[in-house]
């Protein structure tokens, strides 16, 4: 059952399967970027390499898995902002380091052990708990793997775990430590918080020219103009070449005939299916389902009868939308012959008796040659364009090697040429405004600011198969602003500091008065301030969201009931917090205690594992091809 499989993703092996799910690229020609003959290494760990294909496949699989758990929230942009590429590479490097240790230790996995492990894995068992070859092959098909690749991945995982196993967590924390930690973590406090906004204190100070000049000299790093660079940018992508490529109808027709499934959509059926070991039980359930049944909600009634009359989980009956190839032939043959909204069964199977209904049918779509002709033509043109791009790339290198500048070389291959003047490292012009038409490649500015003047860069490839190069023509070094350039900025900064000092002085006055037993409400009325109350505040910050920052949260747990904190800067305000009440933990929740124990144990184990990995990593020479890594994440433009 598809939903059953998803619900059983618990063991290390099932988690590994998820990470191995094949993910296809949405961009053109990704599979053609790195062939077996041209698969450069993103990183080198001792004698082992992390290839570009290995990195890309792992990265896309991780994004695919994250999207399953976040309803598709992890876009490429989000992944980049979270630093996922670096994390993925670090994971692969760690695996290579451990693989080296495995080789040193000469550890192996006996075939007999591997066989027993496979036979005992729940994912491969039928509903009676026996290993099913059909189920095993079905799962591997879903993973896009063959048996050899699956066995290799499982062996690697087992061997790596053997190296890590001495550092795994255990539930052996002292009960005293557990309970003290529990009590501290779950103690709650009620606090009153006075907010003193800096914005309400308008500084009247007008600094003299001497004061401005002194601050400019003293803090010159704050008042500097960044380095600016002027450069030429050339780019070429498949789209640029499509109009130069012609494909005749005969070749298009051949492609259509050779790959018919590529352009057709198979029939899909929404299926609810349940298996029974006993024919009588299946017959009884069949009768209950047919009593006063309504076609409009047949699937709902099907699940209700299962829930109310059997010990089975009705959710496991949901197969979802399936194609014929998704299930063993014996099952699919029956399902794809069945009428819609009609209970079928009991049917005898090698595993007992089954009932099922087909609640929805999405017919197969067979597209004619004329309907897909344009799509086929585009795909073939892109493939040809990719080949031509690499030929043009070689021509570009030849032109540069002959002494031509980047503009002349670009004209030779009909590449687009753009020129940009006085751009800083952040992609802004000398006026401080963002340059909107700057190509949106994350690694572009680093490439520009690493380049030597008047030297064309290498051609850089992207996942979208755009290739580009740059040449820096002029560099304006970083410099300190002149007095006139910095004057207005410095005046605002001095006035801002004065406003902060006025707000801080007020905060300190209030602290003195509170310590002299003056009432908080009276003081806030006197100073026209706002007081907020936060109840049940815990050390993890719950109960204080938007009221206390991390510094203030730490401070209120360092003082006693009735005491107040110092003035603490929080965004553009100062806050003073007073502890009104402390609620100790009177009753320990054993379930929470177990969770805390697990969390602390795992945290300790992780720290030890990290130390171990760091130690063995130091023994290896690790080189990362940063330029290649960056080029893999250039946007298609």
Would you tell me the structural class of the helices and strands? Answer: alpha+beta
Name the CATH homologous superfamily of the largest domain.
Answer: Porin chaperone SurA, peptide-binding domain
- In terms of DSSP E residues, the strand content is 15-25%
What's the number of extended β-strand segments?
Answer: 17
Q: Please name the CATH topology of the largest domain.
A: Triger factor/SurA peptide-binding fold
Count of discrete structural domains: 4
> Termini distance?
42 Å
- Global morphology: extended
Q: Report mean pLDDT, rounded to a whole number.
A: 81
CATH architecture tag of the largest domain? Orthogonal Bundle
Rounded to the nearest angstrom, the radius of gyration is 34 Å
Q: Order of strands side by side in the largest beta sheet?
A: 14-3-16-15
Main beta sheet strand tally, sense and closure: 4 strands, antiparallel
Low-confidence segments, given as residue ranges, are 1-37
CATH C-level class of the largest domain is Mainly Alpha
Alpha plus pi helix count:
24
The share of residues in helices is 40-55%
How would you describe what is shown here?
The longest helix is centred in the middle third of the chain and has 33 residues, at 369-401. The strands form 5 sheets. A 4-stranded antiparallel β-sheet has the order 14-3-16-15, sandwiched between helices. The chain has a 4-stranded antiparallel β-sheet with strand order 10-5-12-11, with helices on both faces. It has 4 domains: 2-168 and 618-631, Porin chaperone SurA, peptide-binding domain (Triger factor/SurA peptide-binding fold, Orthogonal Bundle); 188-223 and 483-583, Roll (Chitinase A, domain 3), CATH 3.10.50; 231-239 and 377-480; 265-362, Chitinase A, domain 3. The chain is of the alpha+beta class and 637 residues long. The model is unreliable at 1-37 (pLDDT under 50).
């Amino acid at each position: 059952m598809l939903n059953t499989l998803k619900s059983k993703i618990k063991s290390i092996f099932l988690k590994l399967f998820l990470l191995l799910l094949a993910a296809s690229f949405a961009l053109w020609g990704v599979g053609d970027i790195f062939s077996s003959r041209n698969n450069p290494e993103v990183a080198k760990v001792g004698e082992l390499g992390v290839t570009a294909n290995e990195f890309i496949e792992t990265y896309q699989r991780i994004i695919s898995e994250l999207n399953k758990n976040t309803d598709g929230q992890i876009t490429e942009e989000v992944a980049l902002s979270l630093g996922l590429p670096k994390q993925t590479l670090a994971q692969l490097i760690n695996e290579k380091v451990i693989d080296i240790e495995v080789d040193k230790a000469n550890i192996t996995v006996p075939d007999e052990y591997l066989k027993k492990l496979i036979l005992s894995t729940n994912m491969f068992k039928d509903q009676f708990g026996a290993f099913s070859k059909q189920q095993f092959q079905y799962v591997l098909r879903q993973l896009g793997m063959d048996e050899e690749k699956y066995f290799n991945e499982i062996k690697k995982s087992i061997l790596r775990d053997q190296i890590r196993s001495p550092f795994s967590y255990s539930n052996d924390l002292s009960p005293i430590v557990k309970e003290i930690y529990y009590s501290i973590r779950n103690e709650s406090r009620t606090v009153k918080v006075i907010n003193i906004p800096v914005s309400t204190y308008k500084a009247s100070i007008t600094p003299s020219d001497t004061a401005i000049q002194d601050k400019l000299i003293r803090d010159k790093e704050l008042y500097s103009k960044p380095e600016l660079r002027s450069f030429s940018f050339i780019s070429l992508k498949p789209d640029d070449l499509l109009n130069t490529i012609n494909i005749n109808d005969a070749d298009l027709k051949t492609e259509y005939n050779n790959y018919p499934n590529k352009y057709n959509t198979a029939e899909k059926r929404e299926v609810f299916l349940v298996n029974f070991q006993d024919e009588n039980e299946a017959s009884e359930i069949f009768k209950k389902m047919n009593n006063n049944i309504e076609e409009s909600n047949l699937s709902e009634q099907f699940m209700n009868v299962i829930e109310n009359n059997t010990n089975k989980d009705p959710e496991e009956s949901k197969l979802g939308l399936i194609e014929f190839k998704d299930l063993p032939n014996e099952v699919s043959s029956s399902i794809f012959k069945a009428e819609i909204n009609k209970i079928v069964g009991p049917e005898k199977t090698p595993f007992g008796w089954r009932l099922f209904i087909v609640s929805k049918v999405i017919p197969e779509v067979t597209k004619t040659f004329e309907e897909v002709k344009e799509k086929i033509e585009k795909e073939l043109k892109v493939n040809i364009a990719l080949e031509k791009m690499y030929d043009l790339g070689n021509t570009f290198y030849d032109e540069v090697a002959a002494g031509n500048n980047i503009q002349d070389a670009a004209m030779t291959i009909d590449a687009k040429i753009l020129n940009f003047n006085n751009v800083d490292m952040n992609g802004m012009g000398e006026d401080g405004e963002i340059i909107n038409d700057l190509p949106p490649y994350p690694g572009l500015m680093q490439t520009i600011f690493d380049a030597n003047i008047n030297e064309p860069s290498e051609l850089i490839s992207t996942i979208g198969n755009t290739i580009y190069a740059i040449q820096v023509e002029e560099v304006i070094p970083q410099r300190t602003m002149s007095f006139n350039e910095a004057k207005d900025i410095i005046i605002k900064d001095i006035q801002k500091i004065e406003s902060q000092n006025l707000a801080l002085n007020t905060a300190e006055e209030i602290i003195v008065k509170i310590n002299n037993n003056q009432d908080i409400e009276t003081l806030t009325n006197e100073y026209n301030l706002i007081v907020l109350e936060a109840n049940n505040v815990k050390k993890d910050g719950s109960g204080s969201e938007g009221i206390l920052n991390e510094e203030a949260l730490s401070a209120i747990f360092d003082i006693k009931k009735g005491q107040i904190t110092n003035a603490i800067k929080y965004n553009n305000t100062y806050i003073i917090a007073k502890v009104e009440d402390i609620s100790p933990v009177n009753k320990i929740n054993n379930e929470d205690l177990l969770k805390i124990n697990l969390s602390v144990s795992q945290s300790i184990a992780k720290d030890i594992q990290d130390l171990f990995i760091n130690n063995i990593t130091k023994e290896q020479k690790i080189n990362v091809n940063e330029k290649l890594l960056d080029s893999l994440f250039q946007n298609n433009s």
